[in-house]
Amino acid sequence: xxxxxxxxxxxxxxxxxxxxxxxxxxxxxxxxxxxxxxxxxxxxxxxxxxxxxxxxxxxxxxxxxxxxxxxxxxxxxxxxxxxxxxxxxxxxxxxxxxxxxxxxxxxxxxxxxxxxxxxxxxxxxxxxxxxxxxxxxxxxxxxxxxxxxxxxxxxxxxxxxxxxxxxxxxxxxxxxxxxxxxxxxxxxxxxxxxxxxxxxxxxxxxxxxxxxxxxxxxxxxxxxxxxxxxxxxxxxxxxxxxxxxxxx
Length: 248
Fold this sequence. Notes:
The chain is an all-alpha fold. It has one domain. It has helices at 6-24, 30-40, 43-65, 78-94, 97-123, 133-150, 154-163, 168-193, 198-221, 227-247. The relative contact order is 0.22.
C-alpha cells in the first residue's frame, strides 16, 4: 500500500467518485480523475491503478445503458484501437516516469481543447460530418494510444460517436460497451509492463466504494444536473491538473 498523506487520500477518493459519475452519467468527467491520480501517484502507476477502477465503473455503465448500444458500429474501430494500444504499450515500455507524466498532461490539454472546440462548433450550429472509415481509423488509433498511456480516450471517442450522429441513449450505451472491451483488453498489457501489481490491487480495493458512490450519484443526477456548469468545473480543474503535470 502506498505511503500517502491524508490530502493525497482525499484526492484519490474524489477521483474515484469522479470515475463513477463519468461512467453513469457524464462522459469526460474522468479527466479530473486522470489528473488527480497522476498528481498523487507516479505517472505509470497511476495509469494502472486508475484502469482497474475504470473497469469497475464500466460494469455500472453496462448495467445502466447496455440495451441502447449499436454494437455493429464498433466493428470498424477494432483494428485501429488494437494498433493504438500497441503503440501506447511501446511508449510506456521506453518512456521515463517524467515523460509519461508530461505526456499525460499534454494529452489532457489536447482533449480539453478538442472538447472546447466541439462545444464552440455546436454553439455555432455546425454539424459534424458523418463518421467514415478514415474517421474510424483516426479516432480508433488515437483513442487506443491515449487510453493505453493515460486512460484519456473519453473525449477522443466522444467526438467519434458525435460524428456518427448517435442519439444520447445510443451514445451512452455504445460507449459503455466500447470502453468495457478496451479497458479489459488493456489489462494484459498493463500486467506485462508491471504497472499493475499487488499494491495496485490493495489501493483500488480501498477506493472501489468511491466508484460505487459516484455511479449512484451520477445515476441520481442524470436528469437533474446542469450539464454546462458541471463541464465548466471539470474543465477548470482538469486544466489546473494538466498544467501541474507539465510543469512539475
